[in-house]
Amino acid sequence: MSEKPVLRFAPSPTGMLHIGGARTALFNWLYARHTGGTFLLRIEDTDRERSTPEAVDAILNGMTWMGLDWDGDATYQFARAPRHREVAEKLLAEGKAYRCYATAEELTAMREEQKVAGKPMRYDGRWRDKQAGLAEEGKPSVVRLKARQTGETIVHDVVLGDVQFENTQLDDMVLLRSDGTPTYMLAVVVDDADMGVTHVIRGTDHLNNAARQLQLIEAMGAAIPIYGHLPLINGPDGAKLSKRHGALAVEAYRDMGYLPETMRNYLLRLGWSHGDDEIIPTAQAIEWFNFDSIGKSAARMDYKKLDNLNGHYFRETAGTTMVAEVTAFLAREKRTLTMTARQRLEMAMPSLKERAKTLVELIQGAEFLFTDGPRTLDAAADKLLTPEARAVLATALRALDATDWTGPALEAAARAHAEATGVKLGQVAQPLRAALTGKASSPPLFEMLALLGREESLIRLRAYVN
Ligand code: GLU
């Protein structure tokens, strides 16, 4: 075993990468990067019915988007089925596992009886000490682990502390099905052992599995990893996060216009803390991350906090990076920017990123830069362009046209015009803004006029003069 920690994220590709999974991946990744260890990605596609290539793509894309790079190639669990079988056969040969010939009908009857007797329903070990006779020849059988029947199994968990399970509660689990396929429980343990995984950090929904997996690890004589089970993520209302709360998939957050850095910071704080710090950039997180500060209770989604964090990272992120984020976002919507649009976007970015909380919002506010010609007015802009406002616009644009087309000169001209006609600057600026951008709010007006240029600006302004 290597000295450095080996961590892994082991999603089952049965659906999207949801944010609970993304947080698990993040915590594993942070710990690996913090310690200089290894972070592996293992796609647990043993369930052939439920695993899909689309889900594999969603996981790989989601991880890549989140910036959670894994070391080496991703492993696919199903491809290792022969190895899983080999381990089961070895346990069988060593008497640590056994063949069980109970039929489905027999097992159903067994559970019925247990139910009637008010006993917990679990496999009763009927083949544990029995030898197959002639009657069993050619009959289907499963391979079960000969689990310890007395005492306790204790999971030492870095998050939850010691969690104790009575061995009487854990029955002899199936390792190989009657068709020879390995079960998920066997596959996980064999893979972790073969890959030298030192830390198993995953959702708390796997805590019960840990006790059974421990018994298997012991039977195999493999090294016991350090466990950490992360509490659930709840919706804003405190109930278990579900479809009803919307936005479960990481992709959805990408499409709502959050930055990967925002998501890393947000998901980190969802279950991990460093004093009262809310803003923890990834580099800092790598330096600070530990298991001690993982919360024991369920975390709660807070979309307002997410928005505020995103606004923060917009302001912190360089303009060129933000332009790249916007172009990537538009590309996913199959939109491309013309050269002119891109230049305008670059110039306006310092103002645009100050006023938006998501890329969607930012792009909406930048649409007036992307195409030429008169604007379609949104409801607020339409309301602003009253007949009186249009009359102001008519005279104002003549005043602007008479000056140098630079921000400061345009502003001075508009001020002078407002003074000369006895109105406030806003009464001149608002109609100009509405006609120029199609909206009632925008980045600084005179900057935008200068940025769009005299010709393009006048075309837009004239379109709303009666
Ligand atoms: N494949 C399991 C899941 O997606 C995780 C197994 C593990 O982390 O041990 O829930």
Instruction: Name the hetero compounds present.
Output: glutamic acid
- DSSP helix fraction: 40-55%
Spell out the CATH superfamily of the largest domain: HUPs
Mean pLDDT: 95
- For the termini, the CA-CA separation is 80 Å
Question: How much is the radius of gyration in Å?
Answer: 31 Å
Number of helices, counting only DSSP H or I runs of 4 residues or more: 19
Low-confidence stretches: none
Order of strands in the sheet with most strands: 1-2-3
The CATH topology assignment of the largest domain is Rossmann fold
Biggest sheet architecture: 3 strands, parallel
How many β strands by DSSP?
12
CATH architecture term of the largest domain: 3-Layer(aba) Sandwich
Category from helices, strands and their pairing: mainly alpha
CATH class of the largest domain: Alpha Beta
Count of structural domains: 4
- Report the principal-axis shape: elongated
Instruction: Give the strand content.
Output: 5-15%
